[in-house]
Amino acid sequence: MNPPESPGEFPYTRGIYPDMYRTRLWTMRQYAGFGSAEESNRRYRYLLSQGTTGLSVAFDLPTQMGLDPDHPLAAGEVGRVGVSIASLVDMRKLFEGIGLAEVSTSMTINSTAAILLALYVLVGREQGVDSRRLNGTIQNDILKEYIARGTYIYPPRHAMRIITDLFAWTRAEVPEWNVISISGYHIREAGSMAVQELAFTFANAIAYIESAIAAGMDVDSFAPRLSFFFNAHSDFLTEIAKFRAARRIYAKLMRDRFGAASDRSRMLRFHTQTAGSTLTAQQPDVNVVRTTIEALSAVLGGTQSLHTNARDEALGLPTAESAQLALRTQQVIAYESGVAAVPDPFGGSFYIEQLTDEIEGGVTDYIRRIDDMGGALKAIEAGFIQSEIQNAAFEYQKEIESGKRIIVGVNRFRGGEEAKVPVFRIDPANERAQVECVRQLRANRDEARWRGSLADLEQAARDGSNLMPRILTAAEAYATVGEISDTLRGVFGEYREA
Q1: Which of 44, 75, 263, 316 has the most CB atoms within 10 Å of its CB?
Q2: What is the chain's Cα-based Rg?
Q3: pLDDT tens sequence across 69-111
């Protein structure tokens, strides 16, 4: 069976560019962030010195949830699973010595994405960088938080309003920025299968696109800045076919459903991360093998950027040494394996082409079912998507426990001494220092300017004005992430899962 078209031709099954990696390799974007902004800055500079070509920022849970470090609910979580960013002061420290005009930055942030992007833009201005030159991505995918992850703040329809405001604002102010990274990664980590990962991700994408169009935006004005984030799981051939099918599905969706006229609007651009859920605490060195296979599937599937997980991430945050090894894994694939010399090396394989078709059919069926329910928001509110993921995760776990599915070192091949690897530890003093830092900020800022900026933000939230200029002004007045979030909470309320 021959592939349906050449690389770079609609519907882009074989890749969105004719030459793919022969002209330019994927971005090697290692995800990192922990403790204080100063510590994370040191890790970023180290990764850049080792050959990373893009930064990816992990934020701690209080930052993700719009809570300041001294909030009672933040206790014990400050700087634990990512870096703590409470204000412009922290963002300035995070990128000290790193020129924002020269680096592409991805920020894995959703409920507070608008605030963190505002802080990034302000740091760029302080460096003398025109915001129109800033390049990067914010995840900003709130629907998957209600489905799979849980770091939501506001009710879904209010959260969608913030995202639509961000679409409109970035188009004029930060045109090179990818305003959303619609994520299947966390859907897969929650237990979905490959077809469900694509289907639920594209159902969410449809909701975002429809929301932007309803707000008066032309699809070709924002679609080229949409990006996606997928999981590279352990079933090597299925993952390659999944990425190929994803491009084809998206191209047809944008042309046929939304009437996108621009080729750039029809091209699926995506970041890939190897599967954290496949890593094991048992025999952690084996995780290097798992990650290599998963990373290779992403490259053979045509990803635009890639993060490789470290061998010790089932035990804790990666050490500098394991992060370096994860990066070296990408570099060996890029420079030594030879696979980057050929676009879509598996194109034309009977099995890969058949599997690509099967995945496309399964995804299309799911999208039709969700459309019949009234779209992704209705399906989420009804619990349909959550239930489908939970059922898939349950079946997967049953297969492991019965021995039908073999996990090396977990339910088979457990003999021998377990390898001991160093575990990264967060200094508890970081939390105390961050609490003190935010308290000093509040004591020293211009109170009238701060209060006025939050009052303007509250008014915009009530009258429907675009929120982003007001968020930017508040951040510049040293309002904290928690204070800006609380202002919006006061108008929008908070979401509570039924």
Answers
A1: 44
A2: 22
A3: 999 999 999 999 999 999 999 999 999 999 999 999 999 999 9
Per-residue burial over 415-437, b = 16 or more CB atoms within 10 Å of its CB, e = otherwise: eeeeeebeebebeeebbebbbeb
Q: All domains of the chain, ordered by start, with CATH? A: 20-402 (3.20.20.240)
Q: CA distances (Å), 200 to each of 52, 144, 246, in order?
A: 31, 9, 12
How high is the pLDDT of residue 1? 55
Q: Which residue has the tokens 């990264």?
A: 424
**Cα(28)–Cα(322) distance, rounded to whole angstroms?**
15
> pLDDT per residue over 151-174, tens digit each?
999 999 999 999 999 999 999 999
Cα 142–chain centre separation = 11
Residue 206 C-alpha from the chain's centroid:
18
Q: What is the pLDDT of residues 448-469, one digit of tens each?
A: 999 999 999 999 999 999 999 9
Question: Can you tell me whether residue 45 is helix, strand or coil?
Answer: helix
| Residue 291 burial class via C-beta count within 10 angstroms: exposed 0-12, middle 13-18, buried 19 and up | buried
Nearest by Cα to 15 from 298, 355, 229, 307: 298
Amino acid at 38: E
> How do strand 27-32 and strand 226-232 relate by DSSP bridges?
unpaired
